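User: Some background: our group keeps a shared notebook of sequences we're curious about, and every so often someone picks one and asks for a predicted structure to add to the entry. Today it's my turn. The entry only has the sequence so far, pasted here. Could you supply the structure so I can complete it?
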Amino acid sequence: MLGSMLLRVPSLFRRRAWGIRTSSTAVAVIVVAGALAAGGLLLLLLLQNALTTATDSVLRTKAHDVAALVAGQDVNEAGQAISTGAAGTIAVQILDSGGHVVHASEPALASRPLSLLRPAPGTTAAQQLANAGALGAGEDYYVVAVGVSSGSQQYVVLAAQNVQVKSDTLRTVALFLLLAAPFLLLIVGVSVWYFVGRSLRQVELIRAQVEQVSPGSLGSRVGVPPTRDELQALAVTMNAMLERIEAADVRQRQFLSHASHELRSPLTSLRTGLEVASSEGGSGQWKQLAPLLAGEARRMGDLIEDLLTLSKSDDAAFRLERTDVDFDDVVARETARARATAPPSLRIRADLTPVRVQGDARRLAQVVRNVLDNAQRHAATLVVLTLNSEDGRARLTIDNDGPPVPDADRERIFGRFVRLDDSRSRDTGGSGLGLSIARSLTEAHGGTINAGTGPDGLCRFTIDLPQN
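Assistant: Of course. Here's the predicted structure to add to the notebook entry:
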């Protein structure tokens, strides 16, 4: 249970397809791009409105002043005023009711009207002209027209000003925004990528540290950064969770160890009583039950010893007595034991090469015995043991002609209390601890044990141990 909890922890930090860093950068760039587009459009509209309003105000003032002269004096006086006055950048025309130019501020403007605007007396109209030939080819002008009466005659006063510079200003600002936006977005993207990555480095460090925590190293803790932010809170929370997991694991192992020790005494008394009662004889029914009860007592004793072994393998109390061990002698003794207890229909063959390893002979014998017992239970007619040396490692393969372990179960089979064939009886199927103990003891020796299929299709278990 604790192992599965630890396996789930790294999944808390698994990144999505894009990852937080890439997603944050993309979102920041998209948001800034939208803000730039909206802000740039608003800026251009405001700038255009400000320039147009200023030009319109100047031209209206000029046109109304000339119209006042036409209405208050006469058209000739107004014409003389606009031709002799300092018109500057403003062009002025006075048109009669037929649309002909009566007076103009410049001789070049006397040939044709600047605009087709013809407002009624007392009203004003305005328009922007592109490519106004009378004023300058290829340039934009803004024209304000004011209608005015002088006696029985009606006139139109036109005031125009070149707005090409202002149009060019708008285009320049728009071009600048268009060209500057990619550079600004690049700066935003790089900045967000850097700073988010800098923040996530601590998260990645915490994730990597948690990923290294295993059932055998529950005392490990993650480093707590002195940032006083969410990262620090995350590290503190992870350490608190690891402390709870470690405490639960300690309680579980202590319970297992204490329970196993406590069961030893009554079990010993039970086995002794069964032996004494069997030696003294009894009724026929008792003689039938005695072997069954004795077998159950032995099986319970084996289970308690297995639990104690597992408890010690998880605890610091587990120690190996390392010496030079002739591993082929260990395998030969276990093979002889298996042959002595095997049914006549089961053949056990061994091909052993002398190999020496460093380890605990008693524990190594327990590894071989557990795997060999498992092979005997599943074999139909044949078990084959092969021991040799490959690349500085001792390799023992134990094959049987029973069905191979399915691919999906080749790791699960080494779990505790795992029995792939649930229909098999407890007497023939074992407790489900033998292979788990074998893996724990093999790993304690720096080796590995795996399930697979041999070249000839037999079910195979492979034990690798480092040599001297």
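Suggested note for the entry: Residues 230-314 form a domain with the Helix Hairpins fold (CATH 1.10.287.130). The radius of gyration is 49 Å.
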